[in-house]
Specification:
By secondary structure, this protein is an alpha+beta fold. The chain has helices spanning 3-37, 59-68, 104-112, 158-163, 171-178, 189-195, 210-224, 230-240, and strands at 39-41, 114-119, 126-132, 139-143, 150-154, 184-188. The chain has two domains: 1-37; 38-240, no CATH class. It has eight helices and six strands.
Length: 249
């Protein structure tokens, strides 16, 4: 082959090689950016929850626990402030991180939503999912980047906790209560707002969920040593009657 032809061929190969390297590099960078900014589907989501969170009592245990709660009328209602329980979930940071490295809000979304997709670089973040609202039974989609009809509810509201004993706690204990995932549920926004800080004698979820709701309420009040009012106790006892009787074996 003439010398000039060989030189031309080498130049073409060098150009082709350089182009291939650029394409491979661009593809790798693009894939990295995609994975960092898009969700990945996990067959098995990472373990959820704070081991120090309130554990849900069974129906029989809840009935016993309810009988053991101190009955007293609420007090110090006029001095309640949300800030007494630490920072909320404003999205601006400052929220406590639990033992698994996630915030309470993040853990609750991972626990309560189904068909979830989480971030690849941060598995605490739920990007999309579906909630079957325990309070209404409604099926609600969730998308982190869109307006949502889903909120996180303190079952025993912070205001009620304050009135039934938390006003005498230390700031550290109140912040821990505010982030107890055993007292938190992902629920429909309107139902959460209707409930507010009402007790079970003032507000109840749909009948199909009243057993579990009362079990959780009693579990939280028993664990944290909070009191119940007479009308509240009566309503809880009524709701626990909706629990299925134990199966005889």
């Amino acid at each position: 082959m003439p010398k000039r032809s060989r030189t031309t061929a080498r130049r073409r190969w060098r150009k082709l090689f350089a182009t291939s390297v650029l394409l491979i590099t661009a593809g790798a960078v693009g894939l990295g950016l995609y994975l960092n900014h898009h969700e990945v589907t996990r067959a098995e989501p990472p373990p959820v929850g704070d081991p120090e969170g309130t554990q849900l009592l069974g129906a029989a245990q809840a009935r016993t626990g309810l009988d053991r709660l101190t009955v007293a009328w609420n007090r110090n209602w006029e001095s309640y402030e949300r800030t007494a329980f630490g920072p909320g979930w404003s999205g601006r940071g400052g929220e406590p991180v639990l033992s698994d490295g996630c915030t309470a809000r993040e853990d609750v979304l991972k626990r309560d939503l189904t068909e979830t997709r989480v971030g690849d670089s941060n598995s605490c973040i739920v990007l999309t999912g579906i909630l079957i609202d325990p309070y209404t039974g409604e099926r609600l989609p969730y998308d982190r980047f869109k307006a949502s009809d889903i909120e996180i509810d303190h079952v025993v509201a912070l205001g009620d906790a304050w009135r039934s004993g938390a006003s005498g706690w230390s700031p550290e204990q109140r912040e821990k209560f505010a982030n107890d995932i055993g007292n938190l549920l992902a629920v429909q926004k309107q139902a959460n707002q209707d409930k507010g800080s009402k007790t079970p004698d003032q507000w109840r979820p749909r009948e199909a969920y009243q057993c579990d709701y009362a079990r959780r309420w009693v579990s939280v009040k028993a664990r944290w040593g909070l009191t119940v009012q007479p009308t509240e106790k009566s309503a809880l006892a009524d709701m626990l009657e909706t629990c299925a009787p134990p199966v005889n074996r």
